[in-house]
């Protein structure tokens, strides 16, 4: 369920895919993602330690699956055309086809999974189910990202990539993904009220 689905403008413009308000929200959250992406620690492996999955999870959990997916696609597109929105002010197609590109490609999947809100029809979302879906999204990011990293690395096997990720990234990513889902509720309510 989308937090902006009850918007009267949505009913008036039912033929359009997104309302103007939804497009603005998608763009705003893509900009938030661009800021969060700059908080990173470069590593000798070429894959920086970041809190980007926190941003991805928050975007999806706040906006819902449809708008969260759209926001992440907007973010990827503005990075693909060369704007420096990826980690360490990276941008352009080279970022998407380089070592870290697989992680970026998987972010729309994670955002969509984080945006699924089981139990909302009964007025109370099932937090446990939401966290589980978010962690499935995180697993997709780690797998797709790890596969591309191993394929392009030349000196790291797939097993080595996943072993390194298990130490350097995954524990931190699990914690910040859960935090993003847990804190998303008040933001969803603010957006639903039009604030």
UniProtKB/TrEMBL annotation:
- Record's bilayer topology term: Multi-pass membrane protein
Q: Which UniProt keywords apply?
A: Cell membrane, Membrane, Transmembrane, Transmembrane helix, Transport
Coiled-coil ranges per the record? Answer: none
Subcellular location per the Swiss-Prot or TrEMBL entry: Cell membrane
Q: What would be one Pfam family of this protein? A: BioY
Transmembrane feature ranges: 23-41, 47-65, 72-90, 102-120, 132-152, 158-183
PANTHER family found in the cross-reference section: BIOTIN TRANSPORTER BIOY
* Similarity comment text for this entry: Belongs to the BioY family.
Name used for this protein in its record? Biotin transporter
Highest lineage ranks of the organism? Bacteria, Bacillati, Bacillota, Clostridia, Lachnospirales
